């Protein structure tokens, strides 16, 4: 369920680092908690993000939830799928429904995040 | 996972947990917010049949020679017009005209009225009625004697009919019958909070789990699904049914809430009547109206409403409408500005987003 090559945050985001690019999304646990997702608000390409600061928001039928950036850097790409199919976040949060790609300004940050095993223990404990 | 100990639980609590419902704290109650998903459950009720645990709702019974007098005194609707077996929607008001609660009044007998009240208001309601009981009547708090299951949707009647010998087609809308469901005594009411056809049954708590399972089995051929409070909210909002704490509360009168139809000023004196008469004379300062979002976003509960750049009101409920595929809501606006078709702005996360006032209800079922 939770890929071993991702790193995870306590706010339920994930990042996959490949070279100097980090692909960011929300976890399956996050989409499960939110329920039916109807809107995704993302920054524009070129925006600078800081680790732990707001990246955008995800809105479900019942609530709005902030998404925090797991890493710092410049947004190089936003996922065009989510404007037309926000519900993809409910079905494929770790794959096709990634949110943004970020050119990392501090690549070491990701190693401070949780591993898949740690994250699963964390959400187990959170329940 | 067991229920959180500080929260109150219905007799169906462990069943919800066993079947994977997502549970939330709803006004101090540990309740299922969703099973398969709010949109899926919503559509199931609109097109097939859904079942809800509404056992958290409270029951108060007024009995005795002057039961009708007391009931009439504490509620806004005309109890004298109710026939035995009939139900009406009504308001319990403070003397200043604000809502203690909104309730359903069932006339069981000339000397017996059965009130269904909101979960988080039930103790307050009972105290309020008792405090105003200067009649030869008794007020019994009987919530613990009742579980309540709502079966709602176009196939609700066919589902429930399999489980009872009571002729459901013979129970008109907002009437009830006392009978048996699966051999258990049940009060079968032709009511609901979804804008769809359906029934709400009041049953002994010890039988709730068995009856829920029987209802699920009876509805299987229609694609019945268990539904949570999330879908109950989107369904009631489309039908523009008020929710206490949102459209109505102690500071809001039924006239402001567009519920003038439950207020019978000519029935004689009742709690809140003078305040409502005064409001009628001087005119209402604000009014509840429906809106649809024009811009991108959802105007949610508590968001500010702006008219021509200035704050003018607030959203009481707002949500995507699964049936209409639009974002809808209800808000209070100054009466003079509350006409249909007016452009308004809703402050969504510090950004004004365009919306327009519209006719309500947003959804009305075909009869």
Overall, the morphology of chain A is: globular
Q: Give the overall shape of chain B.
A: globular
CATH architecture descriptor text of chain A: Beta Barrel
Largest sheet of chain A: 6 strands, antiparallel
Cα Rg of chain A: 13 Å
Terminal CA distance of chain A: 17 Å
CATH class of the largest domain in chain B: Alpha Beta
Multimer state: heterodimer
- Average pLDDT reading of chain B: 97
Largest interface, with counts of residues having CB < 8 Å to the other chain, equals: A-B, 13 and 19 residues
Beta-strand proportion of chain A: 25-35%
Number of helices of chain A: 4
Mean pLDDT of chain A: 95
| Broad structural category of chain A | alpha+beta
Can you identify the CATH superfamily of the largest domain in chain B?
A: Probable tRNA modification gtpase trme, domain 1
* CATH third-level topology of chain A: OB fold (Dihydrolipoamide Acetyltransferase, E2P)
Describe the structure.
The complex is a heterodimer of chains A (127) and B (367). With 127 residues, chain A is an alpha+beta fold. Chain A has one domain: OB fold (Dihydrolipoamide Acetyltransferase, E2P) (Beta Barrel). Helices cover 20% and strands 35% of the residues of chain A. Chain A is built from four helices and nine strands, in the order βββαβββββααβα. Chain A has helices at residues 28-34, 81-84, 88-91, 116-126, and strands at residues 7-8, 13-18, 21-26, 37-41, 48-49, 54-60, 64-68, 73-78, 100-104. In chain A, the strands form two sheets. In chain A, strands 1-2-3-9-8-5 form a six-stranded antiparallel sheet. In chain A, strands 4-6-7 form a three-stranded antiparallel sheet. Chain A is globular, with a radius of gyration of 13 Å. In chain A, 40% of the residues are buried. The mean pLDDT of chain A is 95. By secondary structure, chain B is α+β, with helices and mostly antiparallel strands. Chain B is 19% helix and 34% strand. Chain B contains eight helices and 19 strands. Chain B has helices spanning 13-18, 38-47, 67-74, 122-131, 156-161, 208-218, 229-238, 273-282; strands at residues 22-26, 29-34, 50-53, 58-63, 87-93, 99-109, 112-117, 138-141, 147-152, 176-181, 184-189, 198-203, 225-227, 286-293, 304-307, 310-321, 326-334, 343-348, 351-358. In chain B, a hairpin with a 5-residue loop joins strand 5 and strand 6 (99-109). Chain A binds chain B through residues 32-33, 35-36, 38-39, 57, 59, 61-62, 64, 90, 127, and chain B through 1, 22, 33-34, 37-40, 230, 233-234, 296-298, 300, 319-320, 322, 349.
């Amino acid at each position: 369920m939770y890929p071993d090559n991702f790193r995870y945050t306590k706010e339920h985001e994930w990042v996959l680092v490949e070279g100097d690019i980090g692909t960011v999304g929300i976890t399956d646990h996050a989409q499960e908690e939110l329920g039916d997702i109807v809107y995704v608000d993302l920054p524009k390409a070129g925006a600078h993000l800081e680790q732990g600061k707001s990246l955008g928001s995800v809105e479900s039928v019942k609530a709005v939830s902030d998404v925090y950036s797991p890493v710092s850097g410049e947004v190089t790409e936003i996922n065009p799928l989510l404007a037309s199919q926000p519900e993809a976040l409910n079905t494929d949060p770790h794959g096709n429904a990634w949110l943004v790609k970020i050119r990392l300004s501090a690549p070491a940050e990701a190693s401070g995040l949780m591993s898949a095993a740690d994250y699963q223990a964390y959400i187990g404990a959170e329940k | 996972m067991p229920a959180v100990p500080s929260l109150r639980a219905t007799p169906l609590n462990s069943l919800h947990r066993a079947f994977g419902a997502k549970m939330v704290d709803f006004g101090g109650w540990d309740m299922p917010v969703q099973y398969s998903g709010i949109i899926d459950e919503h559509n199931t009720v609109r097109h097939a049949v859904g079942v809800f645990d509404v056992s958290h709702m409270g029951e108060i019974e007024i009995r005795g020679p002057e039961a009708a007098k007391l009931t009439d005194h504490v509620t806004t609707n005309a109890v004298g017009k109710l026939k035995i077996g009939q139900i009406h929607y009504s308001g319990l008001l403070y003397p200043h005209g604000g809502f203690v609660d909104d309730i359903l009044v069932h006339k069981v007998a000339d000397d017996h009225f059965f009130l269904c009240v909101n979960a988080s208001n039930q103790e307050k309601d009972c105290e309020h009625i008792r405090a105003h009981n200067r009649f030869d009547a008794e007020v019994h708090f009987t919530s613990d004697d009742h579980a309540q299951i709502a079966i709602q949707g176009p196939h609700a009647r066919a589902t429930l009919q399999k489980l009872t010998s009571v002729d459901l087609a013979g129970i008109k809308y907002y009437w009830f019958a006392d009978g048996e469901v699966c051999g258990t005594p049940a009060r079968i009411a032709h009511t609901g909070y979804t804008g769809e056809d359906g029934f709400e049954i009041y049953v002994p708590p010890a039988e709730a789990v068995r009856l829920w399972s029987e209802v699920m089995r009876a509805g299987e051929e229609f694609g019945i699904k268990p539904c949570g409070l999330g879908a109950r909210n989107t369904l009631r909002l489309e039908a523009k049914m008020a929710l206490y704490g949102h459209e109505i509360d102690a500071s809001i009168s039924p006239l402001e809430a567009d519920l003038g139809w439950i207020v019978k000023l000519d029935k004689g004196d009742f709690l809140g009547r003078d305040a409502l008469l005064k409001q009628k004379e001087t005119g209402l300062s604000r009014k509840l109206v429906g809106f649809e979002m024009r811009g991108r976003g959802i105007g949610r509960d508590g968001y500010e409403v702006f008219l021509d750049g200035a704050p003018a009101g607030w959203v009481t409920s707002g949500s995507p409408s699964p049936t209409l595929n639009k974002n809808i809501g209800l808000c209070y606006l100054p009466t003079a500005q509350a006409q249909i078709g007016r452009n308004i702005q809703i402050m969504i996360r510090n950004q004004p987003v365009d919306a327009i006032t519209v006719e309500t209800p947003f959804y009305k079922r075909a009869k």
